[in-house]
Amino acid sequence: MHNQIRIKKMQGLSLIELMISMVISLFLIGGLTSVYISTRASDKIRVEVSEMEENARTALLAIRNIVSHAGYPSIYNHTIDEPFYAEADNIPNPDCRTGGAKESLIAYKPILKKKTENSKGGKRDTLLTVFMADNPDMVGAPPGLLTQDCMASTITAQCSSDPMGGMYNPTEAKIYNYLYITTNSGRRALTCMGSLGGAQPIAENIENMQFLYGVSVGNDMVYKNATQVTADGDWGSVINVQAGILVRSEREVLDTDEKKVFLLLDQKITTAKDRRIYKAYTTTVVLPNRITKEL
Predict the structure, then answer these.
(1) Residue 77 and residue 283: Cα distance in Å, rounded?
(2) What is the pLDDT of residues 139-191, one digit of tens each?
(3) 163-197: b or e for each residue (b if 16 or more CB lie within 10 Å)?
(4) How far apart are CA 164 and CA 157, in angstroms?
């Protein structure tokens, strides 16, 4: 008896079946590619928005800290009439109590011509705060003394408001902080300049900044811009500040170029025509030293 070996005849794909398979594969690959590209674009946007949120938090926190010190009268409760400097003349720079060598109150001279200003036409506002300087060498001093500008530069005892060892006229012992936005080479950064030690960026990609000032009028409060407050002579009656910032993404991640319009407090801001993301943020800062004065 002979063993019979049966061999099945092997059959491959026909040309039509192969073409159908290739077309289906192309559709699947195309769909996966589209999903990958879309996911990658969404990831880029998420990263940019996350960085924008962080920049906004940093900027608003810095603004709150700097503005809230405006009008501080020092531990000696010296009179300070206006919490912001917006006079027509330059900032005064008197001599400190001499400690062997002549020393001026303001160490960083570029701040001498800065002012709180309302920039018209959607330009960027600037703000210059003023507060009295405590004595950094005070023995047994309570916490919370103000002896530094926004650059963390510390005033000397001879230039402080200490009646015994500070300025000959203690009411002249003031520290100034100037908030503005740098625009060099297309860069946008919230920057603070201190009267004791230079200037430094605080937060990047801050496109615009606007301020309104809450003026106490009897039992009411009216918000005005810097130009109106100056014209009405109301700087001594400012008890809070509204701050608005417009933050942009570092990279251009949108599909098309377009201009965007934002209402930032009382100003209409039109952005450049680009593919960046823009978001507006606002905060209100109460001036505790001015609230107490008004009460």
Answers:
(1) 28
(2) 877 788 999 999 999 999 999 999 999 999 999 999 999 999 998 878 899 99
(3) eeebbeebebbbbbbbbbbeeeeeebbbbbbbbbb
(4) 10
3-state secondary structure of 55: helix
Question: What confidence score (pLDDT) does residue 294 get?
Answer: 47
Tokens of 148: 């530094």
Closest CA to 264 of 83, 118, 54: 118
pLDDT tens-digit readout, 187-216? 899 999 999 999 999 999 999 999 999 999
Q: What is the residue extent of each domain of the chain?
A: 41-294
- Of 19-33, 133-147, 279-293, least confident by mean pLDDT is 19-33
Q: Kindly state the percentage of the chain with pLDDT values over 70.
A: 84
Closest by CA position to 63, among listed 132, 148, 126: 126
Measured distance CA(27)–CA(40) in Å, rounded:
20
Task: List all residues 6 or more positions away from 139 whose beta carbon is below 8 Å from its beta carbon.
Answer: none
Q: Could you tell me the sign of the dihedral formed by the alpha carbons of 140, 144, 145, 151, in that order?
A: positive
